[in-house]
Each structure stands twice: as C-alpha cells, then as structure tokens.
Amino acid sequence: MRRDAIFYTIFQRSPELIFEFIEPRITNATNYRFESVEVKEPTFRIDGVFLPPQDASPRIVIFAEIQFQPDELLYHRFFAESLLYLYRNADFCDDWYGVIIFPSRNLEPKNTTIHQPQLDSDKVRRIYLDELDDSTEQSIGISLMQLTIASENQVVESAKRLIERVKQEQISILPRNELFDIITTIAVYKFSNLSREEVEGMLGIKLEETRIYREAKEEGREEGRLEGKQETKLELVPAMLARGMNIEEVSELLGLTIEQVIQAAGNQS
C-alpha cells in the first residue's frame, strides 16, 4: 500500500495537520502550503516541505518524511536534503523543523550515531503511529493517519468509528466529504480484491468515483500481482536502472529496500 501517497494527499489538503507534531505551536499555520521541491547541484527532490506564507515572521520551513520501508540511509538523506535546501534558500528561511513518521519503531534506521544530536534536539520529531493514543480523544487527523496501519481485521471497524466521528464532530482540518474520500480510499487500498459495492457495504457509505479512488484500485491490483514475487522484482532492477531511473525511484516502485536494489544491480554487473 502506498501509504506515503495517502499522507501527502492529507497534507496537501490540510497542511496545518503537521503542526500537531510540533512544539511550540507556530502562528498562522493555516497559511502554510505543502510542496514537493527540487534542490539543484546536486539535484534532490524533497517530497514533503511545508512552506510558510511570504509575510510570516519568523519564516519557519518544515520538512516531513513518511517512511514505511526499511532504509538505513534515511537519516543521511533526510538531513542532507533538508540542510541543502536551507543553504540554497537562506534568504527565505529563518528557522526549520523536521517531522519523520514511521508506522512503528522497528522501521527506524538501526545506526543513528552520526545524527543523534539532531535527532535528540527540539528541531526533529520522530512519530511512531502504533505508539500514539488511539482513543476517541485523539484528533481526527491523527486517527486518519493511524488508519493507514490498521490490519485488515481492524480497518473496517476503525474506519466506521472514524466516519461516525466525522459525521458528529465539528471538523476544521478538511470538509467532511474530503475526509470520507480519504477514509474510503484507505479501505480501497486495504481491500483491493473487493468490488466498489462490497467496500461501500462494509463501511456503510457511498464511494465516489474519484481519481484517487481509481488510482487506489489500480495500485492495489498491481501490488497484489507483485506481492510474493520477490525474485521477479529483483530481476526487474537492472532494466529499470538502465532506463534512467535512480535507485530510490526503483526502490519505491518495486517496494524494495535501497540495499536490495543496490545488491540486485551489483549481481547483474
């Protein structure tokens, strides 16, 4: 499941949600915008950057990383890209924060020695979704994120409870119809083998034929075809690299770790 796509959709529609993870709270949070930015020489594409409004004071940039796959080089990449962006945009930035979201602690890189001072500072917050309070007192936004890690046995009841909360509570992060769209899209990812009518019946809600719904169904089918075919994935690596894709793109597309991609490329050289 491409959970990062769900998170990026949530953040694009409601950038202020990221501020639930940052202390102290930043003023004029509602005016931030969530962007994918490119940093030249060398070229990095940073998928999750929250940019302050032009009239903000101070101008605080927030870097977000959603990490649902093992990657021992994650912190090297995260800090290299973030600090390079700050260097290239020094006239625009007064301060920064980083938020790194993991489904659980066991996906965090094992060796953190080099970056431990930054990780221990108040500049960086690491979030483990399975350790967050899952009670109804939790915000709608956090509950939405936690739904992405729910098992198939849990997701239906969790989604129903969240739908009821959206119906009953005063919501500020997103319009209700958009929240329903995201909740049902997560369910579609989880149950890609079911028909639209079956998913609707499970959740007790009418699904709209949106772009994100269609993409979820197609991606779910594709993941179903690839799941359990690790050797086939590894065999595709050299050809994909030969077409000009970089290691991170191949890793993301095939659901492999960076180390697996590098090893597969080396075995074919």
Which key features would you list for this structure?
five-stranded mixed β-sheet, single chain, 11 helices, alpha/beta, Trna Endonuclease, Chain: A, domain 1, 3 domains, 269 residues
Task: Walk me through what this model shows.
This protein is an alpha/beta fold. The protein has eleven helices and five strands; from the N terminus they run αβββαβαβαααααααα. The chain has helices spanning 3-13, 74-88, 116-120, 140-147, 152-168, 176-190, 196-203, 211-226, 230-242, 247-254, 258-267; strands at residues 33-39, 44-51, 60-66, 95-102, 124-128. It has a five-stranded mixed sheet with strand order 1-2-3-4-5. The mean pLDDT is 77.
* Averaged pLDDT: 77
Distance between the amino and carboxyl termini: 31 Å
Radius of gyration, Cα only, in angstroms?
A: 19 Å
Order of helices and strands: HEEEHEHEHHHHHHHH
Output the CATH topology of the largest domain.
Trna Endonuclease, Chain: A, domain 1
Using the coordinates above, name the CATH class of the largest domain: Alpha Beta
**Protein structure class:** alpha/beta
Low-confidence stretches: none
The tally of helices reads 11
Précis, in short:
By secondary structure, the protein is an alpha/beta fold. The protein has helices at residues 3-13, 74-88, 116-120, 140-147, 152-168, 176-190, 196-203, 211-226, 230-242, 247-254, 258-267; strands at 33-39, 44-51, 60-66, 95-102, 124-128.
Topology:
Elements: H1 3-13, E1 33-39, E2 44-51, E3 60-66, H2 74-88, E4 95-102, H3 116-120, E5 124-128, H4 140-147, H5 152-168, H6 176-190, H7 196-203, H8 211-226, H9 230-242, H10 247-254, H11 258-267
Parallel strand pairs: 3-4, 4-5
Antiparallel strand pairs: 1-2, 2-3
Helix pairs in contact: 4-5, 5-6, 6-8, 9-11, 10-11
